[in-house]
Model the fold of this input.
Amino acid sequence: MLGVTLSRWTMSYFALALLALLLGELALTLGWGYPRPPLNAPDTLALVHLLALGWLSLLLAGALQQFVPVLVARPLAHPRWSLPTLLLLAGGTASLVAGFHALASGNPAGRFALAAALLGAGFGLLLWNLLHTLWRARPWALPARFVATGLFALALALLLGLDFLSVLSGAETGSWAVALLGRGVPLHVIAALGGWLSLTAAGVSYRLLAMFMLAPELERRGSRAAFALAASALLLAVIGGAVLVIAGHDPRVPLIAAALAGAPALALYLRDMRTLYRRRQRRVLELNARMSSAALVALALAAALMLPAWIGGDWQRWLPAIAYLLLFGWLGGLGLAQLYKIVAFLTWLETFGPRLGQGPTPRVQDLVDERRARGGFVLYFAAVALAAAMLLADRPIVFRIAALMQLLATLAIARELWRTRRLRHLAAPHRVPPPALLFVRGTSLSPPENRP
Done:
């Protein structure tokens, strides 16, 4: 980590992302959005985009601006763009959620047009910043290739989303644009959930889990095959499907081909994750690694549920539970688990990194209390499993109870993140003034002999 510059606004990204997650869980608890309205209802669409953009995309955007430079050993190309990107993405998400909420009762055209402008500019800045950073560091190792492909998927999801918003706002009435809105929603979901969020999370997990568990980084044939198959599935589904939709055809064939490529890619990725756990040098797993394994179980379970849905053709019944496990179990669970470690790690780097070689310093683990945090994580994953089961069983009341449990668990985790950032767990001999809560100083870590 020597030579790494801490991204100033990463903590602000994380704070806004957690706020969006808490608002989404509160909405589920109060019965706003699915399962009371159908999947395509405006309130459900508002809730899904609050979680996908406000929670998961902001979380990844903040994390990538800190860790892409670590992945490629190059500084971020445009560090000053971080705050404008955050403001644009937050404003665009709020406008989009408000637009979907107004879709059933008013004229959302103005909100959709504003959301398109803000999200297009925000994601455009993010993509240029990260891709420019990656481009200067070719050739890429496996984690960087996953991240680059995830960013490409983000661009595809963004283009499809902007097309949808242009039609909904009345700015675009062309037949191809309307056709994409009519049949291209699954392509948008695949690009966003399967590409941008999942491929990027997979790439980050290859590096972070290896780093935090002291495991050897994987670059073997099966790992490269997992990447090639996943990238092929993305291209087949989104680009192949979009071409057929624009031409007036059903995109079913490329979607089936993508599923046939994606299934072995997922199996190879899960095998790699199991290998990391088995080859780790850290014998006693820290809490973030244990909870990350629960997120991987949620991913495997969601994939397993796709089989009966595929065989029976009853996607209407199985899809809500699958989506819940992916959003909250796999992506949300992995995000919270890694966030627990990342906040402690960055706080330690900011507070004690510049003091290395100048006296005793605490460990990163001294900034957290795993015993206090464990209960929140266990409750979170138990609540996600219960909620997914209740979606399958069509028990909306019990589902809302599970959502309340999940909300309380997230609040407990967020409180531990706050205590870590404020150095509340640090023992007296190492007590120092805590850093700012929502931003970090531009600290560059350099070897002691290079310091003035």
